[in-house]
Amino acid sequence: MNRILLIVLIFLVVVLLFWLVFGINWRSKQNYERKHHLLRSRMQAEDTETLQKQLFGNSNIMRVEQRFRPLALLLSKHGRPSISCSEQEIITDGRRKYDLLIRDIIHAKESIHMEYFHFGIDRRSRRIRKLLMRKAKQGVKVRFINENIANFPIPNLYFHSMKRAGVEVVNFTNTGFSLLRFLMTLSYRDHRKIVVIDGRIGYTGGMNITKNYFGRWRDTHLRLSGESVASLQYAFLDNWLAAGGKLSSALIDFFHLNKPSCSPPFATLTQITPDDPTSPEPVLLIAYEWILSHARQYVWFQSPYLAPPQTLINAMRQAVKRGVDVRIMVPEQCDTAIMRPINKSYYADLVEAGVQLCIRSGEFMHSKTIVCDDYLSCVGTTNLDYRSFGIDYEINTFFYDRTVAMLQKQLFENDLPICHRLTAAEIRTTPWQRLMRHLAPVV
């Protein structure tokens, strides 16, 4: 009898812990303001009127094509940065990103801020780590947010060595907080990829820092300069303070404010949009649904993982009914065994909805992109899955620009020759896939 009671008690405790970690929707205005209050309080206390005007002023909204202005306003809700101007390079070769990042780190004079979901221990990753340590010893302020849950297999010594060299390192999931808060945030992952150098150069997109991204996988990343880097810096500092990091300087010292200008070379209208699980609304999911609802010609997605919420599938179905060409490009093989059956379990629903599923062979594709109607495009960290839309900290860069959209359209088309368009007759959904589909919201 006692053994049965013990088993029941253990079961109840496990259920309670599972509910605390996965079962509560923490989206609310109160939680969002609590999460972001440190940076906002400092901005108010330091009277950064010029900075706030550049970050949130929306002075460029009228430059956006009229039918996409509501999207731009949607993306700027709840204190997110509004539209700025940038010069960008779209990077699809990890070796190119590596070479550029090494060069920019070497030339850094003031600060290097880095935030990655995965930071590896391979040869090239170690070189970047060594450079960060060298720059810290030279007096450059180097701040590093460690996604300590995702990087759990890496020994702590790897990051402690960085600290000893003068790099300021904070863990994203802070075990120093209360047990309840730790459990509440245990499922959250900092899926963002951000580098900001001297407040003038920024990197973001799909590429982490591990050997897979230095030429082995197909991915899409950005190198940015111009006004939009301030938005990227804001997103980094927000997470830095929330994770327990300290700032000894005034906020204004971290931003190089440019005179607002959308004339060349900073001619691209850019909107950097962070999202997190405490936001009152899942802004990126709502944005994707808005794009599908307002597209006239086509919406093309690239995503390595495919577990879209039902509302997004419904938006795709309605877009197809209006004659919109909706395509999703996904890799034939996944990098993790658990995602392969989950991806395949959604094929039937999407094909039935009229979506063109382009199954890409060759190397694993990790890109997370959107292009719509030869005008709107996006490069981000957000996958088409439950975790990205509801649990992870993500950041996407939207462009309102025909030249950038046409470039991204061409990149999509460049991948099509090694894609196979899936038909309903080819789809076989197994019981194992159906079972794994129920785990999609938490894996």
Condensed summary:
The chain has 443 residues and is an alpha/beta fold.
Descriptive overview:
- By secondary structure, this protein is an alpha/beta fold.
- It has 2 domains: 29-65 and 86-270, 2-Layer Sandwich (Endonuclease, Chain A), CATH 3.30.870.10; 283-437, Endonuclease, Chain A (2-Layer Sandwich), CATH 3.30.870.10.
- It has helices at 2-23, 29-45, 49-56, 69-75, 94-106, 123-137, 156-164, 179-185, 228-242, 283-294, 310-321, 339-345, 347-352, 386-390, 402-415, 431-437; strands at residues 84-91, 111-116, 141-146, 168-171, 194-197, 201-205, 221-226, 268-275, 298-302, 306-307, 325-331, 356-360, 369-372, 376-380, 384-385, 394-400, 419-421.
- The strands form 2 sheets. Strands 4-3-2-5-6-7-1-8-16-14-13-9-11-12-17 form a 15-stranded mixed β-sheet, with helices on both faces.
- β3 (141-146), α7 (156-164) and β4 (168-171) form a beta-alpha-beta unit.
User: CATH homologous superfamily name of the largest domain?
Assistant: Endonuclease Chain A
Could you give the distance between the termini? 36 Å
The CATH architecture name of the largest domain reads: 2-Layer Sandwich
Strand content: 15-25%
Helix tally? 16
What's the total count of β strands? Answer: 17
Helix content: 25-40%
